[in-house]
Amino acid sequence: MTTPDEQPHERPATGERPGSYGEIAPGVPRYGQYAPEGWVPPSSVNNGQDDAVTSSGLPPVSAYPGFKGGPVPSAPGTHFAAPKLVVIACRFIKTAGALQALSGLLLLMVVFFPAVRATMVDALKTALPSDPAYDSLLADPAMISSLLAFSAVLSLAGAASYFWLASKIRKGAGWARTTALVLACISLLALIQPNVFTIIQVGLGVVAMVILYRSPSKEYFAKKVPGGGPHGY
């Protein structure tokens, strides 16, 4: 008997023992039964793309018109590790930036140490041609200090830009690679009056640009999202 608030229990279907369960799916053993030898559970999705509908309820990639196989495009925000050559190129750029920072520190040392500044002025008088304009400029200590301080600040700012661009290039920012290429071309003007220090610095930048515009570096930048986003920036 059942009370008015209770629902009667359903009886098992004809031919089924009490306490047993119905068939889950065609070919699937019932609860409490042993699977026959060699039985393989049916797969609802083969390799995530073979069936008409995937587990997410959407058609697989292969079902869309124009799909020709190959790797499925990654979702936005996917991180791609930088190739080894890109890492090496970034190290070259940072080394050039370190040399630029060293030149800025040397200029500051000239500003704050009068003995060093006097030695530099004597060297400039010897190197520069005899000209009243040069002589009047070198005779003004305040003007020399101002020019040296400005050059030191400019040099340190340039060094900071080297490190900043290197970090962005390693993340795959195409605009940073283009900017570095432009700066590398401009730096070639420093070879008009070359010295060992300048040749090494410019050479590092040029070699880095050659690496960044060859395989596999160019493929690495091609994977990034145009215009920035999690890949470019």
Can you characterise this structure?
The protein has 233 residues and is mostly helical. The chain has eight helices and no strands. Mean pLDDT is 74; it is low at 44-54 and 225-233.
Structural class: mainly alpha
- Runs in which pLDDT lies below 50 for 5 or more consecutive residues are 44-54, 225-233
Please report which band the strand proportion falls in: under 5%, 5-15%, 15-25%, 25-35%, 35-45% or over 45%.
Answer: under 5%
N-to-C series of helices and strands: HHHHHHHH
Percent of residues in helices: 40-55%
Oligomeric form: single chain
Q: Report the mean per-residue pLDDT as an integer.
A: 74
Gyration radius, in Å: 36 Å
Note the topology.
Blueprint: H1 84-112, H2 114-127, H3 132-138, H4 141-170, H5 174-187, H6 196-212, H7 217-222, H8 229-232
Helix pairs in contact: 1-2, 1-4, 1-6, 4-5, 5-6
Brief descriptors of the model:
233 residues, mainly alpha, 52% helix, disordered C terminus
Structure, briefly:
The chain is mainly alpha-helical. Helices cover 52% and strands 0% of the residues. The radius of gyration is 36 Å and the shape is elongated.
